[in-house]
Amino acid sequence: MPYFKPFNVIVLGFDGVLGSVLAGALDLFSFTGVSWQRFSNEAVEPRFKVQIASLGGGDIRCSNRLMMRAHCDIQDVTECDLLLVPTIGDSIDKVLKQNNGLLPHLKRLANTNADIASNCSGAFFLAEAGLLDHKVATTHWGYANKFKADFPLVDLQENQFVTHASDELGSIFCAAGGSAFYDLGLLLIERYCGREISTQVAKTQIIDSKRGNQNSYTNVTLHKPHSDQLVKQVQEFIEQNFRQPIQVSSLAAMANITPRTLNRRFQASVAMRPVEYIQAVRIEQAKRLLELGDVSIKSLADQVGYDDISSFTRLFKRATELTPKEYQDKFSRLAI
């Protein structure tokens, strides 16, 4: 089927980039219209022209010490259909400081109506450039607290795999992290080339894109970074005694404050009420037990402090979007 000229994709290269995502973006878009056609004995029709652009056009030192050569200088890129910002693999603050010369070019290209997309910690570049202010975005769940502290004007949807914000200047897409890049890539390929081509890419690359959010991957212990020592003490008590019945009134009495004050301070520190934190700790422990091997639902519920199996199963699915059995099949070490 004939088509117009390939869409122009620029992948941003910078020292400290995660090499697998930089190369993965190059491969995913470069082979769109190529791999399926080769397998099907059809005419090859590349749908994207993909180039890696760095500041000054210099070589790129990835976080794994792999050196990659840029195709062009980002300063010479006057327009593109899509600008991709890959994952930061090294220290985020260090990489942003060392590559702050890229920020004017992100802003400049954002004003050309180009689509802009980031993966994982690449969203920090977009936020640092002010492109995500008052817009929805996502990043890896492990960076969510830092992101919210650094960029309070951004509407961070930390549980989402992919977000999309648009205004009169264009669209900005963010992917959560790791393999969420492939969900983003397939979405963008569908945006430019249609569902049929996107499906072809998914099949040739063997990509399962049916993911909902990051909930099944998160770790509740990351809710700890805050300065309220009283709340930390209550958290530690919960984490050490989650198998036992725990009442919020008892926690408040232990801390010598009212339940209402405890609720308020928990909300301010960890964005949860104490009862939600108790549930989160129990679900996190259940996830770890499921990852270790085969365990019955009744035994699992007992080990994490639930007498009612149906209530436990309902809470687990609400937290992870998977049943305990589905979670075990997906993450158990015995299943690998």
Automatic annotation (TrEMBL):
SUPFAM superfamilies: Class I glutamine amidotransferase-like, Homeodomain-like. The keyword Transmembrane applies. It comes from Psychrobacter pacificensis. Keywords: DNA-binding, Membrane, Transcription, Transcription regulation, Transmembrane, Transmembrane helix. Pfam families: DJ-1_PfpI (PF01965), HTH_18 (PF12833). The chain crosses the membrane at residues 6-29. InterPro entries: Class_I_gatase-like (IPR029062), DJ-1/PfpI (IPR002818), Homeodomain-like_sf (IPR009057), HTH_AraC (IPR018060), HTH_AraC-typ_CS (IPR018062), INH-QAR (IPR052158). One of its GO terms (molecular function) is sequence-specific DNA binding. This is AraC family transcriptional regulator. Residues 232-330 form the HTH araC/xylS-type domain. SMART domains: HTH_ARAC.
